[in-house]
Amino acid sequence: MAAAALPLAACGNGINGNGASTIDARVASTLDFMYDTYPGTTDLRDKAAGVLVMPLVTEAGLGLGGSFGRGALQVGGTTVDYYSATSGSAGLQIGAQQYSHVLFFMTESALADFRSSMGWAAGANLQYVAADQGEILRAETITSLAPVIAVVFAQSGLRIGATLEGTKYTRIIP
């Protein structure tokens, strides 16, 4: 399944190889869009130990599928590391889509686990926030549900259901 994500990785995902400054600009733009569109997410930002921003993830599938994106981890509003996100899948699927997602690490231990892993995989411990909850989102109402909260937004394409479960995040040097 991981091999299915390799062709997507080769496409550069619109970020190309321009390095950290390009990723930083896309991260800033993505965060501005999210905070403007879903003002309640600022409450998450203010309470989070760290925030991983994936400005553009491209996902495609025809039997075999995969996704790829690059982004940055911010702690206290400052970029501390860069990451890629990849996933592979098999099954009844057809189509492609692009989306942005942000992971809010709501506890110091969740952030430490993420940063110390050789490759962190998103799993069932993720709490998803639907786009329509962004207006009324308050951190104290959902932080007890999961130490990591995912906000998936800005979807476009013809593939149903962006899910981050099984996505592997790996530290990169842009």
Automatic annotation (TrEMBL):
Lineage in the entry?
Bacteria, Pseudomonadati, Pseudomonadota, Alphaproteobacteria, Rhodobacterales
Q: Entry's InterPro entries?
A: Ysc84_actin-binding
* Name of the featured protein: Lipid-binding SYLF domain-containing protein
Please list the residue ranges annotated as the Ysc84 actin-binding domain. 87-170
